[in-house]
Amino acid sequence: LAQALSVLQQHVQLMAYEKLRDQVLAWLQTIETRVSRLEPVSVEMETIKRQIDELKPILKEHRDYGMTIDKVMDLGNAYDALIRPESPTRRRSSVSPVKRTSVTASPLRRTSQDGSPSPTKVSAFGLQSPVSPGGSSGFGSRRSSQDGFHLDETTSVQQELTEINNRYTLVGTRLSDRQSELEAVREELRKHLEHLRTLGQFLDKVQRSLPKESVPNSKDDADKTGKLIKGILEDMYEKQSLLDSTRSGISDLLKRKPSAAGADNLHDELTDITSRWKSLNDICKNRIQLMEDVKDFHDTHDSLTNWLAAKERMMTVLGPISSDSRMVQSQVQQVQVMREEFRTQQP
After folding, report:
1. Which of 99, 135, 173, 195 has the fewest CB atoms nearer than 10 Å to its CB?
2. pTM of the model
3. Which residues contact 59 (CB under 8 A, 6 or more apart)?
4. What range does the record give for the signal peptide (predicted)?
5. pLDDT digit string, tens, across residues 53-105
6. Total domain count for the chain?
């Protein structure tokens, strides 16, 4: 009678365990599929916000399902404890001679969310995180402790519980990694967009500050305009480091996520800012050069005007052609000198 009751108890325990185990495995398959199908992290602020909102219920579902994982662990361990006395004795791996020992395993429990076992729920098999060095990073990977029992030396129930624990932990790791990535990219993108807005506003200010295109009427006007444009160019040089760091940061982000949603728009925004910057920079340099040319023109004009005035005075000094041959010879020589000076002044 006692044996019959024991068999009945084992059967009831097995049915309860297998029913919940199947539910847990189906849930794991579903959530693994959902996580695998999550779209890549975007580089567009509104899309990132949507992705964060979409992730929250999955994180909550995974966290809340921990109680069910604990329950299936309890049922599995309880059933394993019932059948263990009837199972063959197992050998512990050791450098010492192998001895046949009776093994009493502590119940398996799920790993806590941070990857370390809960103080009151320590795994008897020293389960490692599925993403720890040397472990498989895929869903459904099987791991056993390096210093505990080998999988082929554990019961099938223990192997199933280990599998469930590893898969549940790996889903949590992937969800946590995605949450961290979303938050990091959102902050990185926020900084880049803020810098782009700052640069855009600065370029608008530069555009408004540029003097209207015109040729100055005097050297003083050209000098004033040139100094004004040089001041604008100095301001651009001061902002150059912000442009360079923003361009480098966005280029690095796009290199890491070339096909992410919003990548094309972000690239276009950066291209627009850099193109406007180069255009205004070239305009400033060309206008400064023009002002220098205008100043040179006025200097040349003033110099030539003074020289012509001096020559006109010399022409009046020559007076009419003399009737004295000696004076005529002198006048001819003076005219030849003046002609030579005129020739040297030609451009």
Report:
1. 99
2. 0.68
3. 175, 179
4. none
5. 999 999 999 999 999 999 999 999 988 888 775 544 443 333 232 222 222 33
6. 2
